[in-house]
Specification:
- The structure is a single chain.
- The chain has ten helices and three strands, in the order ααβββαααααααα.
- The protein has 260 residues and is mainly alpha-helical.
- The chain folds into two domains: 112 residues, no CATH class; 133 residues, no CATH class.
- Strands 1-2-3 form a three-stranded antiparallel beta sheet, with helices on one face.
- Helix 1 runs antiparallel to helix 2 and helix 6 packs parallel to helix 8.
- The radius of gyration is 22 Å and the shape is elongated.
- The N and C termini lie far apart (68 Å).
Length: 260
């Protein structure tokens, strides 16, 4: 790559890249490193300020200070994907090491994101099996395992739809935790399961925001205090939303778990 690409073209790519990385649960320091790496590969300096849902990005041409682009963007929450985070991080290194053109970088970026979207059905199936396996690990009977599989399958798919239509994340967690736990309860109600505590408890495990909590710790350790504390508080609110959904199921059921 002999010529420096247009600053607007680079900025547009960095905005899309940062938006995707932030939405899928990447911790702040990793986003910063990847964005800086890409900008430097194309001969530009970049300043990036990240908050929980928003970020400010400013791209500057070091050879001409009058050439600058600054944007404030809002990210929408998306399902966490370790595979996508890894692929996008690898793309930043590929751009830096191989000096590929901005057009080729956009093509690779689109391919990575599209492949992740096509893999949703596979993820849905594996997530359902994984949650059912946890139910077995906690000594649930066969009926509970089947109930948890169905609850996870429906709940995870519903979360995908609610995210697609940009429903508030906290509202999502209340709705999905109630639906998943209620489906697990139906297995008990119809005599399919004889271990209601395991079935209901395992049915909402896929919602647990463990990665968000880990990211908040990473952000604090990397001295991104504001983002880390905000993410920690937000994670706590999501756990409360899960508890509300499960409580709704227990309140309308007659299995006596609330009263021990």
């Amino acid at each position: 790559m002999n010529t420096k690409p247009d600053i607007q073209e680079v900025t547009d790519f960095l905005v899309e890249y940062a938006l995707k990385m932030l939405s899928i649960g990447t911790y702040t320091a990793r986003i910063e490193r990847c964005v800086y790496r890409i900008a430097n590969a194309y001969g530009y300096d970049v300043s990036l300020t990240i908050f929980v849902k928003h970020f400010i990005i400013s791209v500057l041409d070091p050879d001409d200070n009058s050439m600058r682009r600054t944007y404030v963007k809002t990210s929408m929450a998306a399902p966490i994907s370790f595979n996508l985070i890894s692929e996008l991080s690898a793309l930043s290194w590929q751009i830096y090491d191989e000096k590929i053109s901005i057009a080729m970088a956009k093509k690779f970026f689109t391919g990575i994101v599209s492949a992740e979207n096509r893999d949703f059905k596979k993820t849905l199936l594996f997530m359902s099996f994984a949650n059912a396996a946890f139910c077995k690990l906690f000594e649930g009977d066969l009926g509970s395992i089947l109930s948890v599989f169905v609850a996870t399958f429906i709940g995870f798919y519903l979360r995908h739809l609610l995210t697609k239509y940009r429903i508030n994340l906290k509202v999502q967690y209340i709705i999905i935790s109630f639906l998943a736990s209620f489906i697990a309860y139906l297995g008990v109600h119809f005599g399919v399961s004889n271990t209601p505590d395991v079935a209901i408890g395992a049915s909402i495990l896929f919602l647990m925001p463990g990665v968000l909590l880990i990211n908040s710790v990473f952000d604090i350790l990397n001295e991104n205090m504001l983002v880390g504390i905000s993410r920690g508080l937000n994670t706590g609110l999501l756990i409360i939303c899960i508890a509300i959904g499960v409580y709704m199921t227990l309140a309308i059921s007659n299995i006596g778990l609330l009263n021990g």
